């Protein structure tokens, strides 16, 4: 199993208070949550899903 390390950009919407995050290195890797704890869980899941979709050349 390969191990990867990614940086995520996280912002909080001032009006709704929702946290929004995306991983610039993974196209399509973005998510949102109402708490940082849930955002971390969501980010892990979306990174795994995006990595599954990569072809052998992209991986």
UniProtKB/TrEMBL annotation:
Gene3D superfamilies in the record: 3.30.160.250
InterPro entries per the UniProt record, alphabetical: TA_system_antitoxin (IPR051404), TTHA1013/TTHA0281-like (IPR035069)
Top-level taxon of the source organism: Bacteria
Stored SUPFAM superfamilies: TTHA1013/TTHA0281-like
Protein name, entry field: Type II toxin-antitoxin system HicB family antitoxin
